[in-house]
UniProtKB/TrEMBL annotation:
Keywords from the named record: Signal
Domain Chitin-binding type-2: 21-99
InterPro entries per UniProt: CE4 (IPR052740), Chitin-bd_dom (IPR002557), Chitin-bd_dom_sf (IPR036508), Glyco_hydro/deAcase_b/a-brl (IPR011330)
Protein name, UniProt field: Chitin-binding type-2 domain-containing protein
Signal peptide: 1-16
Pfam families: CBM_14 (PF01607)
CDD domains in UniProt: CE4_CDA_like_1
Taxonomic placement: Eukaryota, Metazoa, Ecdysozoa, Arthropoda, Hexapoda
GO cellular component terms, A-Z: extracellular region
PANTHER family: CHITIN DEACETYLASE-LIKE 4, PTHR45985
GO molecular function: chitin binding; hydrolase activity
């Protein structure tokens, strides 16, 4: 500990000298600027309003910035160098060292596309998948010979407001055609989550994924360290308090379906995630299959904040817009965003059937059903969903799976007659991503200093682990009470540990 403190003191002392060598631009534009002395460092320009609350990503970066005209230093991760053309840290032989004289002042606008259009001859499974318009079935299989996969996903906190509703869906009676229980994917946020219930979901084999700690607005415009703090911090909170293994958390979803341009996907790449599920597809007659980000996205980017460069091998599981002919109820990426509250349960059931048929009767692209808690606050919506699920599971080729199970099929697509060979779909496979939860858990009343306010509130949290000192938050996933203590190390072949620090 003392050695770390000494190193930190030396770094900060060095920064006092180094920053004198760089002057912030007179007209400050958000972005990254090359250090005039070395390619190992760069300066980041931000307004003070965009500074992250007490977030430190130590060991990889010294996270200081240009605030109100005052220069602060960032360091590239070990072994990487700042490319002044593309404005991110990369390998030495790829980096164009700056400052480049022709480099324009960076802006927050999305950069020009650098990804190329899909090349089906070069892009081959299991590591790459794309098609010209996104509608092609993997493996060039015929639609009638492949399974129709349904993915039920849930966003936000898990607590008493929704846990029983989720249990009614996954009641142990609903089975896939191979006799195995159906499973779902939970994109979790921190505030108000019950970690004993999340551990139950993990023990039952449901997929646990991240949707950020704070659900802050405007995250799509934030920098690398903010995305690391939100997503990797959330993964660490799940490890600390729901006993979910970091290795089993391989998917993320951006808050409010606002992807973080290239920044979010660099975090995905650096920290060992397999997929993202944040990009929405506008209403199209034939739905889009998931794809890897080796090539340019084949459909319109609805949010305007999609990645513009390639991230080879990273999967995108897009949210196709839900709608019916004539757009009764509107169109929506989330099921609960469509205006269906004026329908009775049979009309909701019929609406879902018609929406689903666009997939089932055409290219059998995976049918994602994303929900927030508010869907389950309206009985006709909830009952209509139950009717739809029971009806769908009567079809001989419909499987309700997690996102990861779906991707395991896509990397090695098989005809219906052979799907029983897929290891990840078998009933006897150990599916738990968390140990058996406790029967008696801790209910923790914890002090929580509301960010950007000089007010301390109380937050309650349930967990099978010991109560932390304070409510876990950005920069302090363990709830130690030491702001900015977290150290996150990205995953790499030579460094398999995703995080360090005490439990």
């Amino acid at each position: 500990y003392l050695s770390r403190l000494l190193i930190a003191s030396l770094l900060f002392a060095a920064q006092g000298k180094e920053k004198e060598e760089f002057t912030c631009p007179s007209h400050i534009a958000n972005g990254n600027y090359a250090d005039p002395v070395t390619c190992r460092r760069f300066y980041q320009v931000k307004s003070a309003a965009k500074m992250p609350p007490n977030l430190v990503v130590a060991t990889l970066f010294v996270p200081l910035q240009c605030v109100d005209g005052f220069p602060y230093l960032n360091r590239c991760p070990s072994g990487l160098y700042f490319d002044d053309l593309q404005k991110f840290c990369t390998f030495k032989d790829e980096a164009k060292c700056g400052p480049l004289p022709t480099t324009p002042a960076p802006a927050t606008d999305a950069p020009a596309d650098t990804a190329q259009r899909c090349n089906t001859e070069e892009c081959q499974l299991p590591y790459c998948f794309c098609s010209k318009d996104g509608t092609q079935i993997p493996g060039d299989l015929e639609a009638e010979k492949v399974p129709q996969i349904i993915m039920i996903t849930f966003d936000g906190a898990v607590n008493l407001n929704n846990y029983d509703h989720y249990q009614k869906i996954f009641n142990g009676k609903r089975k896939n055609p191979n006799g195995c229980n159906i499973r779902g994917t939970f994109f979790l946020s921190h505030e108000y989550s019950n970690y004993q219930q999340i551990q139950h979901l993990g023990y039952a084999g449901h997929e646990i994924a991240t949707e950020s700690i704070s659900q802050q607005l405007g995250l799509q415009d934030k920098g690398y360290e903010e995305w690391v703090g939100e997503m990797i911090g959330m993964r660490e909170i799940l490890r600390h308090f729901a006993n979910v293994s970091v290795n089993d958390v391989v998917g993320m979803r951006a808050p409010f379906l606002k992807p973080g341009r290239n920044t979010q996907y660099k975090v995905l790449e650096d920290f060992g995630y397999i997929y993202d599920s944040s990009i929405t597809v506008p209403p199209v007659p034939v739905p889009v299959w998931p794809y890897t980000l080796d090539y340019k996205i084949s459909h319109e980017c609805k949010s305007g904040t999609c990645p513009s460069r390639t991230f080879p091998g990273v999967w995108e599981v897009p949210l196709n817009t839900h709608y019916v002919e004539g757009f009764e109820g509107g169109h929506c990426p989330y099921m609960d965003q469509c205006v269906l509250h004026n329908l009775d349960e049979n009309e909701v059931f019929e609406w879902l059937q018609e929406d689903f048929s666009r997939y089932y009767e055409q290219n059998k692209a995976p049918y994602m059903m994303p929900f927030h808690t508010n869907w389950f606050q309206t009985k006709p919506l909830e009952n209509g969903l139950h009717k739809f699920l029971d009806w769908a599971l009567e079809l001989p080729d419909v499987y309700i799976l997690t996102v990861t199970q779906m991707l395991q099929y896509m990397t090695d697509p098989k005809e219906l007659r052979d799907v029983n060979q897929i290891e990840a779909w078998k009933c006897d496979k150990n599916i738990a991503v968390a140990p058996k939860p406790c029967n008696i858990w801790q209910t923790c009343a914890l002090p929580f200093k509301i960010p950007e306010q000089n007010v301390t509130d109380t937050r309650y949290m349930e967990t099978c682990r010991e109560c932390p000192n304070v409510y876990p938050w950005l920069g302090d996933a363990g709830g130690t009470g030491i702001s900015g203590r977290d150290n996150y190390i990205f995953a790499s072949p030579s460094n398999p540990e995703e995080s360090e620090g005490d439990d």
